[in-house]
């Protein structure tokens, strides 16, 4: 089993389950959060190797959460990949400019997801 931890911040159970199944099949440990607040609470005690972040979250939205994570000295170096339904022209640039390292649009490409995770875990 891998010693790499992937945090999935996603409020949609079907998307969370899909990512969990794909990532566990590749040997990753999966840490799940359904809200930005829950993610921040988990990050106080655990430091994942990468975070997969939904942008449309209840409460703290994904962009605000990314900015908070990147502003914290203990979590600023964790790669964050936005996984979002925002796919309009300009959305990717906006999302990357807020601090995300990469962008994956929904619906989730089951082959692209693990390749992106592997790429950014190797960089960290």
UniProtKB/TrEMBL annotation:
A GO term (biological process) for this protein?
A: phosphorelay signal transduction system
Keywords from UniProt, A to Z, are: Phosphoprotein, Two-component regulatory system
User: Where 4-aspartylphosphate occurs along the chain?
Assistant: 54
- Asked if the keyword Phosphoprotein belongs to this entry, the reply reads yes
Name of one Pfam family that matches: Response_reg
Keyword Phosphoprotein belongs to the record: yes
Residue stretches making up the Response regulatory domain: 5-121
Cited InterPro entries: CheY-like_superfamily, Sig_transdc_resp-reg_receiver
Q: Which domain of life is it from?
A: Bacteria
Spell out the PANTHER family in the cross-references: HYBRID SIGNAL TRANSDUCTION HISTIDINE KINASE J (PTHR45339:SF1)
Q: What name does UniProt use for this protein?
A: Two-component response regulator
Q: What species was this sequence derived from?
A: Candidatus Jettenia caeni
């Amino acid at each position: 089993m891998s010693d790499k931890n992937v945090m999935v911040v996603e409020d949609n159970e079907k998307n969370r389950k899909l990512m969990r199944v794909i990532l566990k099949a590749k040997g990753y440990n999966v840490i799940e959060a359904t809200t930005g607040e829950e993610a921040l609470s988990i990050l106080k005690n655990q430091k994942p190797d990468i975070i997969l972040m939904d942008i449309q979250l209840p409460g703290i939205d994904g962009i605000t959460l990314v900015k908070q994570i990147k502003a914290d000295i203990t979590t600023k170096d964790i790669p964050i990949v936005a996984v979002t339904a925002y796919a309009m022209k300009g959305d990717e640039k906006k999302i990357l400019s807020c601090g995300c390292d990469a962008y994956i649009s929904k619906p989730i490409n089951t082959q692209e997801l693990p390749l992106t995770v592997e790429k950014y875990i190797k960089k960290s």
